[in-house]
Amino acid sequence: MKVIFLDMDGVLNNAYHRNNRYIEKDKFEQLQRIVKETGAKVVLSTSWREFPDWSNFLHDFFCVAGIDVVGSTPVRDGWRRQDEIREWLKENDCPIGAFVVLDDIDMSSDFPENMVCTCEAGRIGLDTAFADRAISILNGRSREEEVVSLKTEIERMRSLSEQLSHIVHFDVANEIGHPDDLMVMEQWLKAMGFEFK
Ligand SMILES: [Mg+2]
């Protein structure tokens, strides 16, 4: 699962470091585009999550807009936002390459590969360029993940193949007496890519 850790103020509005609690349409549409192009789900890291009415509103509003909110980072007294995000990653066993942090607080020293700071050179909020960056992080990592997962699958198949070879060897040696059966087995094994001795 790909995850967007989402701040609100300074991301979906231009209220840099202020709690104004409003959403701007053009910025929200960029979030929808990220979700559409990556299939990512949202985890709320915004301070809005600390207020049940606002958290519920976001869940409902995003759901109607086709965006799944799958949770919130834990709220811990005295913790920095990056610590709360890291805690969520740990608790949910999220691979390092499968998330992006959208925030107007720059946490790139904590998440150098995953940070999109939406406050840069006078630009505040999720614009097209910031969204493109988030998409390339999420989709780029996904390809790497696919390679890792493919390698794991190949190893699993290789191990299975070795076990199967052993079992077939046993069966051939002990169970197959008739020459026709042996020939069928030989053809079958070759078709499956096994060496037949
Ligand atoms: Mg903010």
Describe this structure in words.
The chain has 197 residues and is α/β, with parallel strands linked by helices. It folds into 2 domains: 3-146, 3-Layer(aba) Sandwich (Rossmann fold); 150-191. Helices cover 50% and strands 12% of the residues. The protein has helices at residues 25-38, 52-64, 81-91, 128-175, 179-191, and strands spanning 3-6, 41-44, 69-72, 99-103, 115-117, 119-120, 123-124. Strands 3-2-1-4-5 form a 5-stranded parallel beta sheet, covered by helices on one side. A two-stranded antiparallel ribbon has the order 6-7. Helix 1 (25-38) links the parallel strand 1 (3-6) and strand 2 (41-44). The chain is elongated and about 85 Å long. Bound molecules: magnesium ion.
SSE layout and pairings?
Blueprint: E1 3-6, H1 25-38, E2 41-44, H2 52-64, E3 69-72, H3 81-91, E4 99-103, E5 115-117, E6 119-120, E7 123-124, H4 128-175, H5 179-191
Bound molecules: magnesium ion.
SSE sequence, one letter per element: EHEHEHEEEEHH
- Please identify the top-level CATH class of the largest domain: Alpha Beta
Shape: elongated
Described by strand count, sense and barrel closure, the largest sheet is:
5 strands, parallel
Average of per-residue pLDDT values:
84
Give me the secondary-structure category.
Answer: alpha/beta
The separation of the N and C termini measures: 45 Å
- CATH fold group of the largest domain: Rossmann fold
Please indicate the count of domains: 2
Ligand names? magnesium ion
Low-confidence stretches: none
Rg (C-alpha, Å): 25 Å
The percent of residues in helical segments reads 40-55%
CATH architecture assignment of the largest domain: 3-Layer(aba) Sandwich
The total of helices stands at 5
